[in-house]
Specification:
The chain is α+β, with helices and mostly antiparallel strands and about 170 residues long. It has 5 helices and 4 strands. β3 and β4 form a beta hairpin.
């Protein structure tokens, strides 16, 4: 039985209602949860990268570690003494031709004098990954340090040592 009366429902006469908007608190909560999930994903990726990169880096350092025979103490000491390792803006770095020549001559004389006076050259191997070389200059009471890694020796620093410390190590 069909009714001939038109269906009067409230939905026909009212405008279409929009779905309810999420509240501000729900939006903030979803942002916090999303941030937490993203941080956890990045932490896992970081651990994986470290897990694979650390052995690769160790293997690279191990295969490119310089041998003890490649460290020429006299030559490296000359380089440091003539100012090659100083930054360009250092006032002690020789600038002109005459200053550079005098620095080379004085560095050669001082390195030869240190060799004659008995400077101590020590090379310490750190698990085959890197090496630390030191030269103790007996006349100036200074110790010079180099780091050997990736097929090169790099000057690290010079340090004065007290007179009593030098005699204890001998």
């Amino acid at each position: 039985m069909a009714s001939s009366t038109p269906k009067n429902s409230n939905n026909e006469n009212t405008p279409a209602a929009d779905p309810p908007q999420p509240s501000e608190l729900a939006t903030i909560g979803m942002s916090i949860v999303g941030t937490f999930v993203a941080a956890r994903c990045l932490a896992v990726i970081s651990r994986l990268a470290t897990f694979f990169a650390a052995p690769a880096l160790g293997f690279y350092l191990f295969t490119t570690c310089p041998t003890n025979e490649t460290f020429d103490g006299k030559k490296e000491l000359k380089r440091v003494l003539r100012g090659d390792k100083l930054p360009e803006d250092d006032p002690n770095k020789p600038k002109g031709f005459f200053q550079k020549t005098m620095a080379k001559v004085s560095a050669s004389i001082e390195a030869e004098a240190a060799a004659l006076a008995g400077c101590k050259v020590e090379i310490m191997d750190l698990y085959g990954l890197v090496k630390v070389a030191s030269i103790q200059h007996p006349m100036t009471k200074t110790a010079y340090f180099w780091l050997g890694a990736v097929n090169k020796w790099r000057f690290v620093m010079a340090k004065d040592f007290p007179e009593g410390e030098h005699s204890k190590k001998e």
